Amino acid sequence: MNGFDFTLCGAALTALPSGALWWAAARMLIVTDLHLGRSERYARRGGALLPPYETRDTLARLDADMQATGAATILCLGDSFDDSAAAGALDESDLMWLTRLMAGRRWLWVEGNHDPGPLALGGTHLAQHRAGPLTFRHIAEPGAVGEVSGHYHPKATLSARGQRLTRPCFLIDADRTILPAYGTYTGGMSCTDPLLRGLMRPAARAVLLGLPPRPVPFSGTAGQRPTTASI
User: Fold this and answer.
1) What is this structure's pTM?
2) What residue segments make up the domains of the chain, in order of their start?
3) 88 has pLDDT over 90
4) Amino acid 125: pLDDT
5) Which of 16, 49, 57, 231 has the fewest CB atoms inside 10 Å of its own CB, making it the most exposed?
6) 40, 36, 152, 227: CA torsion to nearest 10
7) CATH number of 4-230
8) 16-41: buried (b, 16+ CB within 10 Å) or exposed (e) per residue?
9) Stretch 117-122: mean pLDDT, rounded?
């Protein structure tokens, strides 16, 4: 599998190029911040009119990751929809696609700050999930150990030869992993933001999405101002 392998509290994990996390021993695929229905929410609230294809694109990538891994459990770490109304406004064809992906699998929805989980879609709804040495929640808690979370949509910027490259990234240290947003229409927070600096150890790595994912020292990333309004 074309990913970045690492260990968190004894659990062997793989950061996939798509931004999903694969835990092979548990046959579990973890994604966060899908923000399905973002274009619908923007239009409903009088915001920017975005092409309404992000749900389809996000589901297509999720479908591909599920097929590639053979995952038996899918764990969505919150903000699966852009808000509760967006879950009810899902296009019929997208709803059928998601229903097909859920069929025959254990599907866990962890609540986020944008939505409590799509209650009408079935699956199991949790505030957080504990499995083996790991705890899965939407927002990282200071001092936690063995924690996998999302929420912040981390992005890293590298400067080389006068050029700057910015990509979504995983943040990984000995205590925790923060996943990048999986959804197509999502902003991001620079991993140089003081909030993320406060959560991660100095020896942390930022693993930039790509083929293959590219690990760099957390301290080696160069900053952009975080776009927290997009989170």
Assistant:
1) 0.87
2) 4-230
3) no
4) 92
5) 49
6) -30
7) 3.60.21
8) bbbbbbbbbebebbbbbbbbbbbbbb
9) 74
